Amino acid sequence: MTAETSAQAEATVWHLLEVAQALARLGSDARAGLDRGEAAARLARYGPNAIREGKRRGPLRMLADQLTDFMILVLIAAAVVSGLIGDAVDTAVILAIVVMNAVIGFVQEYRAERAIAALKQMAALTAHVVRDGQSALIPAAELVPGDVVLLEAGQAVPADLRLTEAAQLKTEEAALTGESQPVEKITRPLHDESLPLGDRRNMAWKGTVITYGRGRGLVVATGMQTELGRIAELLRAEEEVKTPLQKRLARFGRVLSIAVLVICAILFATGVLRGEPWLLMALTAISLAVAAIPEALPAVVTVSLALGARRMVTKHALIRKLPAVETLGSVTFICSDKTGTLTLNKMRAEELYAGDRLERGVTPALAQGEPWATLFRALALSNDARLGGAGAVIGDPTEVALFEAARAAGAVKSELEARYPRVAEIAFDSERARMTTVHKNVVSQTPPPPPPRGGGGGGGGGGGGNGRWGSPPPLALPRQGGGGVRVHLLYKRRAGAGAAVVSRALECRGRGGSRSRSDRK
């Protein structure tokens, strides 16, 4: 790729291009990807695929930052003055409070920084890339424009991609666009250059997550050139602002300092005008100023914030800087224009309806009779959600809810798939509003009893006396109430004091023969 081509690539509006045009712009091949030599050259040209961070604060800088608060500066000044006038006790007390305040703040911030660094190390992404016609797993930081990346459910998108293949591919883009529902992806070009990011459905963005399906994409931007990188750049340009508590303490410190100086000046002037020795009045005024400083206030505030940060850790939230605890506590309103932005982004089956009965909650006992046993079997089998390596369920949020409901009822997908493997499927689409899967019954078979002597026919409906194994019974999904088995899922999302309720339905319909069909709507 020449420098001219590189500049053109960075200025390209990728969602407008055909797949072949995008590949030509980046000098790549949809099947073979880049060769390793070209990938290494582009890595040297573009740099690593990583979001640049601001300059990290070292331990000394963290400790020094604890001494920059206005009230702490006032205390230090008071300690110096106390030392000059020979008040050793006050000097020691004030300095002890300053040191304790600094140590508490430093320890909290240092631990938080180390924990965040450890989490980043654990969460380092890898990418399934095609180079020289062979797939390989590499660190996501080594991706370059022109790489071809393979995508599967559960993976994080490692860079900005122009999708070249999408088989029922859906991505969760809440972190980037605020949209809580997974976005179904396509590969055809779009025709509006001004489309917002959420509507560029032939693109996959760095930092989003694949929730369903599989696909293949062409890397078009890495690192700070990605949409996520541009957001990070805007955040870096923002100046650090003081928290409400810091502003109030600084204002209190200034008002207190001015008031104390005015009072001390009046006291000094009055004493001198009365004929008192000026040295005596100066020492008296200084002692009054030192006594008026609330030495314990910064320590009390710091200890309170440290306790708040400790409580936040028990809720799995890391506080990098202590004043942020008070900032969070000062929030009175959260305004959002996207449904689901502030929710757990999870769904849960709460009510189930089958055979003219409505049940709340799922228990193994419920699955003992029909039509519930058939319902939960269909929930598990007509489902593409799967267990991840850490035991978490990976897949579309709706399918994860169905998977969890089936598992709670004792219908374990892996066990059922061993007995009823999927042999065909019709994927979900918006026109049919359902997904259909066909399964074969391979339950353990036992030989039929031997035919009567001299029988020559009989056995299993014309099976004869040839000792062949009998056909297994089909997995039957019976009709109930003329309309099949239907389950309503009510998904509650936490959003302040209110709750949004969405209704979904699932149907299971029977089919004759040695195979069965499970339709999910």
Automatic annotation (TrEMBL):
Q: State one molecular function term (GO).
A: P-type ion transporter activity
User: Per its UniProt record, what InterPro entries does this chain match?
Assistant: ATPase_P-typ_cation-transptr_N (IPR004014), ATPase_P-typ_cyto_dom_N (IPR023299), ATPase_P-typ_P_site (IPR018303), ATPase_P-typ_TM_dom_sf (IPR023298), ATPase_P-typ_transduc_dom_A_sf (IPR008250), ATPase_P-type_domA (IPR059000), HAD_sf (IPR023214), P_typ_ATPase (IPR001757)
Indicate how the chain sits in the lipid bilayer.
Multi-pass membrane protein
Give the main localization category.
membrane
Question: Which portions of the sequence form the region Disordered?
Answer: 439-482
Q: Which UniProt keywords apply?
A: ATP-binding, Cell membrane, Membrane, Metal-binding, Nucleotide-binding, Translocase, Transmembrane, Transmembrane helix
Q: Name one GO biological process term.
A: inorganic cation transmembrane transport
Q: Give compartment(s).
A: Cell membrane
Cation-transporting P-type ATPase N-terminal domain location is 13-87
Superkingdom of origin organism: Bacteria
Q: Name one GO cellular component term.
A: plasma membrane
Keyword ATP-binding appears in the UniProt entry: yes
Q: Where is the composition biased (Gly residues)?
A: 454-468
Q: Where are the transmembrane segments?
A: 67-86, 92-110, 252-273, 279-307
* Record protein name field: Cation-transporting P-type ATPase N-terminal domain-containing protein
Q: Does the keyword Cell membrane apply?
A: yes
